[in-house]
């Protein structure tokens, strides 16, 4: 095991998968297939037990990933667990933790520039708002263990890091669209911002995960931030905020790609 606070040896680290390319792709396909079956279950019970659906969709894939890693053997489960505590050797990667705050403030700034009133813009930042990050941290870690920690390394045997982020964005988006069904936590929200946001998040989180040497810890903290900074935007009209969040998330993702963030990951993966 690598010393705490450094990137693990690439031969035994979280990005390493000790099986053939075909087996890696099959493992990723099994993970996606079972997760989508879970999404279908979530859709079926969304009307009867809407409070359970977000938990099922977030935590369910983590259990699937753990089960598949255990079945895979060859230290796969140990590497998956190690990714939860792995910290990047390059301290500059900690700067990505600022992305969610900058993104939220940019949404507010653009909304004001478009005519949103500034009076009472941050009045809703109460103690309840401060507790939001604590509520979303567990689902964020569960999702990152599954989608980045387990699925991404297995796709890297067949596709590039950018392609892996886009391929996984499809089922990950489908999972989240269940929340837009009647009774869901995002019922009534426009579909296109959800799709655009999730594709953008997948790109950014995959970039962070691979760039940090396979750190689910850092990717999950960024994910927690993306969900936890939402109270900053509570003072903006909800429909406008929903759209701006998606557009600016896409701007961040496109910037990562355009500035060569994924080209620099080629050697790592």
Q: Could you explain the architecture of this structure?
A:
The chain has helices at residues 21-45, 53-72, 76-82, 99-113, 127-155, 161-177, 191-211, 216-228, 238-258. The chain has 269 residues and is mainly alpha-helical. The chain has one domain (21-265). Helix 1 packs antiparallel against helix 2 (53-72) and helix 5 packs across helix 8. The chain is globular and about 60 Å long. Residues 1-11 have low confidence and may be disordered.
Compact overview of the structure:
By secondary structure, this protein is mainly alpha-helical. The chain has 9 helices and no strands.
Which helices and strands, and how do they pair?
Blueprint: H1 21-45, H2 53-72, H3 76-82, H4 99-113, H5 127-155, H6 161-177, H7 191-211, H8 216-228, H9 238-258
Helix pairs in contact: 1-2, 1-5, 1-6, 2-5, 4-8, 4-9, 5-6, 5-8, 6-7, 7-8, 7-9
């Amino acid at each position: 095991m690598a010393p705490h606070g450094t990137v693990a040896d690439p031969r035994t680290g979280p990005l390493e998968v000790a099986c053939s390319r075909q087996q890696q792709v099959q493992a990723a396909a099994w993970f996606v297939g079972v997760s989508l079956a879970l999404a279908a279950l979530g859709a079926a019970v969304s009307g009867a037990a809407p409070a359970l659906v977000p938990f099922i969709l977030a935590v369910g894939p983590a259990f699937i990933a753990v089960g598949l890693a255990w079945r895979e053997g060859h230290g796969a489960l140990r590497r998956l667990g190690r990714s939860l505590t792995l910290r990047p050797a390059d301290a500059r990667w900690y700067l990505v933790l600022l992305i969610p705050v900058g993104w939220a403030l940019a949404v507010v700034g653009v909304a004001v520039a478009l005519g949103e009133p500034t009076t009472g813009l941050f009045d809703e930042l109460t103690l309840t708002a401060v507790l939001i990050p604590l509520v979303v941290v567990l689902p964020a870690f569960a999702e990152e263990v599954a989608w980045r920690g387990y699925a991404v390394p297995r796709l890297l045997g067949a596709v590039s890091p950018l392609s892996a982020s886009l391929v996984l964005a499809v089922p990950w988006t489908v999972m989240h669209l269940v929340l837009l069904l009647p009774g869901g936590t995002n019922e009534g929200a426009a579909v296109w911002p959800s799709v655009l946001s999730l594709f953008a998040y997948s790109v950014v989180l995959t970039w962070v995960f691979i760039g940090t040497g396979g750190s689910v810890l850092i990717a999950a903290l960024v994910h927690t931030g993306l969900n936890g900074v939402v109270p900053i935007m509570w003072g903006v009209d909800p429909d406008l905020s929903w759209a701006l969040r998606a557009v600016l998330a896409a701007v961040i993702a496109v910037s990562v790609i355009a500035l060569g963030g994924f080209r620099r990951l080629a050697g790592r993966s």
